[in-house]
Amino acid sequence: MDLTWTPRELAFRDEARAWLEANVPREGLGSGDTREGFFRHLAWEKQLFEAGWAVVSWPKEYGGREASLFEWLIFEEEYYRARAPQRVTQNGIFLLAPSLFAFGTPEQQARFLRPMAAAEVLWAQAWSEPGAGSDLAATRARAERVDGGWRLTGQKTWCTRGAFCDWIYGLFRTDPNSTRHKGLTYFLLPLKAPGITVRGVEKLDGDEGFAEVFLDNVFVPDADVLGKVGEGWKVAMATTGSERGLSLRSPGRYMAAASRLFDLWRDKGRPAAHRDAVIDAWIDADAYRCHTASTVTRMVNGEKLGAESSLNKIFWSEMDIALHEAALALLGPEAILSEDPVAGPWLKGYQFALAGPIYAGTNEIQRNVVAERVLGLPKGS
Amino acid sequence: MYATPTTEQRELRAQVAATLATACTPGRLRAAWADRAAVRALWAEAIELGLIGLMVAPEAGGLGLDARDAVLLAEEAGFVGLPGPLVDTAWVIAPLLAAAGETEALETVLSGAGWGVVSLGPLVADAEPDSLILRIEGDRAQLYAATPADLRPLAGVDPGRPPARFSPSAAPLWEGPGGVAAFDRGALGASAQLMGLGRRMMALALDYAKVREQFGRPIGSYQAVQHHLANAAVAAAFAEPLVLRAAHSLATGHPNTSVHVSMAHLRAAAAVDKAGRVALQVFGAIGYTTEHDLHLYLKRAWSLSRAWGDEEFHRSRVAAGLDAPRDTKETWDV
């Protein structure tokens, strides 16, 4: 075991740190989940892209700098340490892009990847339906074969930032006689296509961060099918591992939050009653960081992330809530002040943390996955 | 950055695990409860395996491994519930004697003529008439020869790890600084053993949950049972990296080793506690008997998890470490 960085990695860290220090907006950009906030964040995304920091681990031809997995980890740590803005491109670059790299044709990769990284085309995930949340295989939205492509009909929901995005990706049932995870196809389509209606939905925290998407015979050409027709489930499952495991929540996010929590505890005079909750947040964030380092080591050595990514998801989501609860407890009566410069961000963060056990696969499903696929227990009925 | 054990480390671990599995069966553990001679017999086998001289240099008769290797082997010792003061002797006292040039005393422990036990307060465990006892207070360490007059045996919840009250009457054989470093080594070795104990109890519970049927199905197919076991798995999965990181810090002389050791100990103790609670619940009434093997490991965990600093001690060390000025070049290194 060797937990030290190489000189090259340290140089990479220094470069990232310097650039972020010079460029991260001092004032913060507010939430990226409102209409104006989203567009403020696009300017930042373009700045990141121009400087080669938008998609560090991608090939250079798509705007990356071919950073190693460890360098990506380092960049994420520096990003959160610098309190840089929310990444409104994340549903594209972290969730769709791995599938594009794995299953996309050269034409699709050429067409989609660079504009995605450059924040010229913004993507939203159109996964869930009113009747298909945890049970994604209950997807009912369908696609009928027509000349040169398909006509899509159905409804998707919980599309994060869907009201502000340009394109969506989602699963549609192309085999009318199929059920469950068979006969689904993965489509990419523009929200401006004729037959699409988008309706924003306000989240609990007051931001219009969700959207419903209604599709009525929307034409999608064959060129916008990702992977093989009828194999959409396979393509979709490829991303779900990244979403839970690595890409979605890098350790830097929690180390930064735990550090701010510690500072808050100090500012409040180090009250003894809150010490344990505060150091638990740090220990858990550090445990998550160490665990991620070992996961990345295994991936670098050629192992594939399997169902164990479900362990990650349970851990970070519950850690995040405990961390924010500790902050609200420290803030006491002021914890209700949504516009207060100190309490406001913690309150917002707490509300967001509450969503953690729900998105990217509910923690109940994750526990089932751990039990059945990691621990080898018999399937529940 | 290479944050997992190497292939060589995993191979050594597997070899030791296989030998220990044959040597230290539940049957032999029960025998050890009844008769200390059985413990000495197991200890002799541990010496053969090189486990006692693990961290002593080859020139002095050991294997010359560092904490990064030793931590994996300590986990395997925990997995079988190996009785005897492995951590006290191999992690703390033998290396300390080697560093102090106390060759005679070192030979005593390496040969198995006597073993070493650590006393952090009035209590000590596994002390025998031929033991060496290292009392640690802050950064001071004092080594004594055990004499029956100084030891008052007490009944312990784990008969495999008998406690005694220790009040030295004679002058120490040796004393010196290094108490904190010695404590850190012991606490880390114990953390690793606790991880092994937790894994053993989980393994027992998983095997049972797969075969025990009620209402026409294995109980492991019921969501409540699945979720209990999943929660225990999460606790263990995120304690392990802290133990490995602390081993790396210890082996490389990291300035914050004490904080890392305390973090590891806190989470290892919590993980084994969780594993034990879940295992007992999964077994139900049958696990709540002395006939069943579960209590052998459960009681060892109870005994060991409080032996190297209690929760408050470790929490205070972490809080103090976080409060100290941090090197701002490192991103998050405490």
Short recap of the structure:
The complex is a heterodimer of chains A (381) and B (334). Chain A is α+β, with helices and mostly antiparallel strands and 381 residues long. Helices cover 47% and strands 13% of the residues of chain A.
Give an overview in words.
The complex is a heterodimer of chains A (381) and B (334). Chain A is an alpha+beta fold and 381 residues long. Chain A contains 11 helices and 8 strands. Helix content of chain A is 47%, strand content 13%. Chain A has a 4-stranded mixed beta sheet with strand order 1-4-5-8. In chain A, strands 2-3-7-6 form a 4-stranded antiparallel beta sheet, with no helix packed on it. Chain A has helices at 7-23, 35-50, 69-81, 90-103, 106-117, 232-244, 251-267, 272-300, 309-331, 343-355, 363-374, and strands at residues 123-126, 142-146, 149-156, 167-173, 184-190, 196-201, 210-221, 225-226. The longest helix of chain A has 29 residues, at 272-300. In chain A, a hairpin with an 8-residue loop joins strand 6 (196-201) and strand 7 (210-221). With 334 residues, chain B is α+β, with helices and mostly antiparallel strands. Chain B contains 11 helices and 9 strands. In chain B, the strands form 3 sheets. In chain B, strands 1-3-4-7 form a 4-stranded mixed beta sheet, covered by helices on one side. In chain B, strands 2-6-5 form a 3-stranded antiparallel beta sheet, with no helix packed on it. Chain B has a two-stranded antiparallel ribbon with strand order 8-9. In chain B, strand 8 (213-214) and strand 9 (217-218) form a beta hairpin. The radius of gyration of chain B is 20 Å and the shape is globular. Chains A and B meet through helix 3, helix 7, helix 8, helix 9 and helix 11 of A and helix 7, strand 9, helix 8, helix 9 and helix 11 of B.
